[in-house]
Amino acid sequence: MGFAARYIELRDFAAKNAQTVENDREKFSAPPSRARGIVSRPGQPIFDDMMANEQMSVSRVADREKLPLLLDKARQFAGHYIDSLEGRPVFPSEKSLRAMHALVEPLPENPSDPFLVLDQLQEIGAPAVVTQTAGRYFGFVNGGILPVGLAARWMADVWDQNTAHYVMSPINSRLEEICERWIVSLLGFSEETAAGFVSGTTIANFSGLCAGRNELLRRRGWDVARKGLYGAPEIRVVASADAHAAVHKSISMLGLGSDNVELVPVDDQGRMRADQMPKLDEAALVVTQAGNVNSGAIDPIGPLCEHAHTSGSWVHVDGAFGLWARVLPSMRKTCEGIEMADSWSLDAHKTLNVPYDSGIILCRHRDALMSAFKASASYFQWSEHRDSMNFRPSMSARARVIELWAVLKTLGRQGVRRLVEQLCENARSFARLLSEQGFQIHNDVVFNQVLTSCDDDALTRATLQNIQRSGECWCGGSTWHGRAVIRISVCDWATTPKQIERSVRAFVKARAIAAH
């Protein structure tokens, strides 16, 4: 059974058991009007005592006894959204976007009715969201959200854990240890590999390159944490000419200067050419790519690692979505040698369909990663357990590993593999159907990315604009070898063959409108 079919089965099961939800509401003894989701108005009994005094205290507005009713209202709104997914436009209408102006107001002087706040958020906010979890959103590389991940995220939000130290959240610490071990095993990396759980690949790239920069300087007798970069030995950065903007942003934040990057030419699929690598040395940070953001192609990372390590260079892999190709037997040859790199960045909120935000930094040298982010203060409380702040730039952070653990536990090794296979199969199907309708396909569809166009750039851009306005599906644009292209990223478990066919029809209609 496919992921989408399984979701429909679960949704239908929930509908048949809707009476359970009604019984839960009755436990809270809410007035009938609120139990049915009707807006509560000031002056009703539940708010009489709250509204009597204009200077209400926060404790009275945030009355814990009303929390179940607030959560129940939020659950009703969430249910309405999920039930409407199939019929919703993928991108908001102009009317919905204009309605957001109603939110623009001075900060209220006095507290507001929290039920009315949720009502306003539902009335104005829900129509203005991008429907990227319904299977027809193919923009950027935005993943969907598996049901168990969403449910675990709700639990994590109620728990509201800060995760700097073990004593702040023992459950987070333990789940990070488990997910570190599971992910390292899934990707076939060394058991000594360390993992840090961050917001996304931008920070993961920053973390891996920071660890690499510091380690290369340490080997040359320079402690950058104490001395800084003033007077430090030179660090070189060698990267693909098609490196992602997040890589250049990280290099800039690290003080290495994006203008100083030595760019390596790429082939027609955007893969770094190993035969065009400059001479490397112990000062070089080499940044490779598993998943070109346009084509999905993967650099020849194995040979690049062999070349770099003979000269003492550090190799980092920007693997935001493509590193998950390591789980596929069909991609084994393409991914051969990736395990030899020194650090890797990847997102769970892309290919793995974990809720946003969920990024991961992996580092083969545990001490190098921990050294990059060490900090101390008299009030810190270390333990013999994992203190999560040692593996990431931030101290405070939400317990995002909870939903990651839930997804990995639910899918298992075979489920992860099947999810990734499904994304790749859908991308190939999308490309084939578009080709049959006369669209040009510009890349080898090796993973989940498709680049397509019409006969000329003007028609391609007009077609893309019509697609985005249609509400049927959503894709972004890009430039590929000097041509305007429509960029399709298949990254949602909920995408079905029927939705791909529906989207292709939207492409054909958009092109026909643009041609006239």
Characterize this entry briefly.
The chain is of the alpha/beta class and 516 residues long.
Can you walk me through this structure?
The chain is α/β, with parallel strands linked by helices and 516 residues long. The chain has 3 domains: 3-131, no CATH class; 153-408, Type I PLP-dependent aspartate aminotransferase-like (Major domain) (Aspartate Aminotransferase, domain 2), CATH 3.40.640; 421-515, Aspartate Aminotransferase, domain 1 (Alpha-Beta Complex), CATH 3.90.1150.10. The chain is built from 18 helices and 11 strands. It has helices at 3-16, 18-27, 32-35, 45-51, 58-61, 67-83, 94-99, 114-125, 147-159, 170-187, 201-219, 224-227, 245-253, 301-309, 366-372, 401-436, 457-470, 497-515, and strands at 194-198, 236-240, 262-264, 284-289, 314-318, 343-347, 359-363, 440-441, 449-453, 476-480, 483-489. A 7-stranded mixed beta sheet has the order 1-7-6-5-4-2-3, sandwiched between helices. The chain has a 4-stranded antiparallel beta sheet with strand order 8-9-11-10. Helix 9 packs antiparallel against helix 16 (401-436). The longest helix is centred in the C-terminal third of the chain and has 36 residues, at 401-436. The protein is globular and about 60 Å long.
Percentage of helical residues? 40-55%
- CATH superfamily annotation of the largest domain: Type I PLP-dependent aspartate aminotransferase-like (Major domain)
Question: Which outline best applies?
Answer: globular
Order of helices and strands: HHHHHHHHHHEHHEHEEHEEEHHEEHEEH
- Gross CATH architecture of the largest domain: 3-Layer(aba) Sandwich
Mean pLDDT: 91
Counted beta strands = 11
CATH class of the largest domain: Alpha Beta
- Low-pLDDT stretches: 13-47
Assign the CATH topology of the largest domain: Aspartate Aminotransferase, domain 2
Count of domains: 3
What is the first-to-last residue Cα distance?
43 Å
Q: What structural category arises from helix and sheet content?
A: alpha/beta
